[in-house]
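User: My collaborator sent over this chain with a note saying "see what the structure looks like." That's all I know about it. Can you take a look?
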Amino acid sequence: MDQRSKALLKSPFQRPSMVSSGAAAAGTVGAGRAKVLKGIIAGGITGGIEICITFPTEYVKTQLQLAEKSIKPRYSGIADCVKQTVKQNGVRGLYRGLSVLLYGSIPKSAVRFGTFENLKGYAVDERGNLGPSQRLLCGLGAGVSEAIFAVTPMETIKVKFIHDQNSAKPRFQGFFHGVREIIRTQGIRGTYQGLVPTMMKQGSNQAIRFYIMETCKDWYRGGDPTKPVNKLAVGLFGAVAGAASVFGNTPLDVVKTRMQGLEAHKYNGTFDCIVKIAKYEGAAAYVLEL
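Assistant: Without extra context I'll predict from the sequence alone. Here is the result:
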C-alpha cells in the first residue's frame, strides 16, 4: 500500500486533493515562518550596524530637538553641537545612549517585521499582492506595535541619557545604572514617557516606509509576487523609503523627544507640548532639526 492510500484510509472524508494540498499548505506555512524569522534576525543585525554608523547624527538631532528656541540655545547648529560635545566629553560623547538602541535592535525588529508579516498575511489578495491601502494599514499597525512594545522605552531612556550629558554633574553612569535610577525615581512609567507621540511617530513612519518599499518592489516585479527583487534594488528602495519617512514625521519626532527629556514635566501631555512649542518657539521649531 502506497503512502497516498494510507493517508486516505486514516481519514475517509478527505479527497486526494485535500491530502496533497494540506501537505503543501503546511510546507508553505513553515517556509513563511522561516522567512519571517530570517527577516527579524537580519533586520536586527543590520539595524544594529546602522545604529553604530549613524548614532552621532542621532545624538546631534536629539540635542537640537531638546533645545528650546524661546531661550538662548546651548548650540548654534549641528557643527557647534559636535564641536562642544567632543571638546567636553571627547568623541565618545557623541555615542552617549548608543547601548540602549543596540540592546533594543532585535526586539524592535521582531515586533516590526513580525507584525507586518502577520497583518500582510491577512491582507494579500489571491495572487499574494498587497494593495496600496493595505500597505499603509499594515505599516501603520507595525509602527504602532513597535512603539508600544519596544521603541518607547528605548527612546525614553536614550533621550534621558543624552539630555543628562548636558548637566554639570551627569547622574547616569552607564546603561544599567541609568535604567535603575530612572525606575527608582519615576517607576516603570518613567521609561514610557511620550508613548502617544511615539505611537504617532512610529505609526506614520512605518506606514510611509512600508508603503513606499512595497510599492517599489511591486513595480519592480511587474505585479508578479514570486519574482525575486535584486538586492541592490532593495537597498535603493529602502533608502528612498527611509528618507521619505523622515521628512514625513519630523514634527512628531520633536514632540516625542521633548516629552521624553528630563524636563518633560513642563508639559501636561502631548497636545500641551504641541501648543507650547508652537506658541513660544514658532512652527519652525518642528522642522529646524530636519
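A starting point for your reply to your collaborator: Residues 7-21 have pLDDT under 50 and may be disordered.
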